[in-house]
Write a structure and sequence with these properties.
Blueprint: H1 17-61, H2 71-95, E1 102-105, H3 107-122, E2 126-132, E3 138-142, H4 143-159, E4 165-176, E5 180-182, E6 185-187, E7 190-199, H5 206-209, H6 229-239, E8 243-249, E9 253-263, H7 265-276, E10 288-292, H8 296-308, E11 312-316, H9 319-325, E12 335-339, H10 347-357, E13 362-366, E14 384-387
């Protein structure tokens, strides 16, 4: 009692359901990022080993014909190295650190060329239906990776329909006049190509929908799935500056929407003009190469491969050693072939310093890292040529 009045208890309640949900999502994203960083780092180091193994195997194959008793063993090494490279490519795609061979692509042509293979993947009980929008704009993406996205989504759709049915692929142009929000993602305004893959299968349970893009999550039985399929798809789409969304209803099926930014037609004309330019043959000076690579096995393979092609090669195991070699002004170097990420000075940094005294020297960057290893300042180097295949150097 207080002045003849009863005590009153005032309680304030706050619904923290949304906050807790965001907290769980944040913790999960941190875990996924940590796994991605680990996978990307391991994959990069393993890339170097694969480059040396596959490269030296290629050199041996040059000296052995099909009638040689060692030829079959060398082919086994070569094939298994390629299989290992494919597995590493999945890890790099998931961690979004793969090297993309980006080109201007026509989505309609990509799907049409892939239709025969997709038909074989879905089997006899499933029908593959294609519906294309008119006047689809071009996109800038990696053809092989885009094909992998389509194949993974179609295989998932097939597996969702045990008794068969239809898998529908639709393409259309989609334009957002202003930023559009969907599933906590903000899609910038602009023109996009939308690829939709729909099945009419069992659907995804609500408790699993937030986890389908997580690595190693799978609803399949042991031995039937790795849980990397959709996480790899998500990594490829995100690294291509795209978006992927999923909608599902139990018993009615699932729809995956992939949005990829469209490219201005003027960009297509500019790229075609660059492709049409004739590259002049190398001069005698340009047949002298300075190779800079900190990994000894990779350096040994690359230097041998270049010498087999008749080039003169000077080797350095770091940027500082390369700059020391270039102090000899009488040495005529036509091409710098360099790794990008190295201890001490990185590739773009030492090249920029070298070009001050040797302007016009051609540059080839070789790296297992993705293009984001170059920051804006490093990318401003005169006329670089890029070799972006992390596994093989064609000789």
């Amino acid at each position: 009692m207080f002045d003849g009045q009863e005590h009153v208890l005032i309680a304030a309640f706050s619904d923290v359901t949304a906050l807790k949900s965001l907290e769980r999502q944040f913790v999960q994203s941190q875990k996924t990022q940590a796994i991605g960083q680990l996978a990307g780092g391991v994959a990069h180091d393993f890339n170097n080993l694969l480059t040396a193994i596959s490269g030296h195997c290629d050199l041996l194959l040059l000296r052995h014909d099909k009638n040689d008793p060692d030829f079959s063993d060398l082919m086994q090494i070569h094939q298994n190295a390629n299989r290992a490279a494919a597995l590493i490519a999945q890890l790099l795609a998931f961690s979004r650190k793969q090297n993309l061979q980006v080109k201007l692509l026509n989505i309609r042509e990509i799907i049409s060329d892939l239709a025969h293979l997709l038909d074989r993947l879905v089997g006899e009980k499933v029908n593959l239906l294609l519906y294309h929008g008119t006047k689809l704009p071009m996109v800038r993406a990696d053809k092989r990776q885009l094909e992998q996205v389509l194949m993974n989504l179609v295989v998932n759709a097939r597996d969702a329909m045990v008794e068969g049915g239809d898998v529908v692929i639709r393409t259309q142009s989609k334009t957002f006049d202003k930023a559009h929000e969907r599933d906590s993602a903000v899609i910038p305004a602009g023109e996009y190509v939308k690829i939709q893959v729909e099945d009419f299968g069992s659907g995804i349970p609500p408790e699993h929908r937030q986890k389908i893009f997580e690595p190693f999550f799978t609803t399949k039985r042991t031995g039937e799935g790795t849980g990397l399929g959709l996480s790899t798809v998500c990594g490829i789409v995100k690294q291509s500056n795209g978006f992927i969304f999923a909608e599902s209803e139990i018993g009615k099926g699932t729809v995956f929407d992939v949005l990829i930014s469209a490219v201005d037609r003027r960009a297509k004309q500019k790229e075609q003009k660059l492709i049409a330019e004739v590259v002049s043959p190398p001069t005698q000076c340009e047949q002298v190469v300075l190779l800079v690579e900190d990994e000894a096995p990779v350096r040994a393979f690359v230097s041998r491969a270049l010498r087999i092609k008749g080039l003169t090669v000077y080797e350095a195991d770091c940027a500082e050693a390369a700059l020391k070699i270039l102090e000899d002004k009488s040495l005529k170097i036509g091409v710098f072939v360099t790794d990008v990420v190295m201890p001490g000075l990185d590739g773009p940094t030492w090249v920029r310093l070298a070009l001050m005294d040797r302007p016009g020297t051609r540059v080839v960057f070789v790296s297992g890292y993705a293009e984001d290893a170059f920051d804006k300042q490093q990318s401003e180097i005169e006329a670089p040529c890029s070799c972006r295949n992390p596994f093989h150097l064609t000789i």
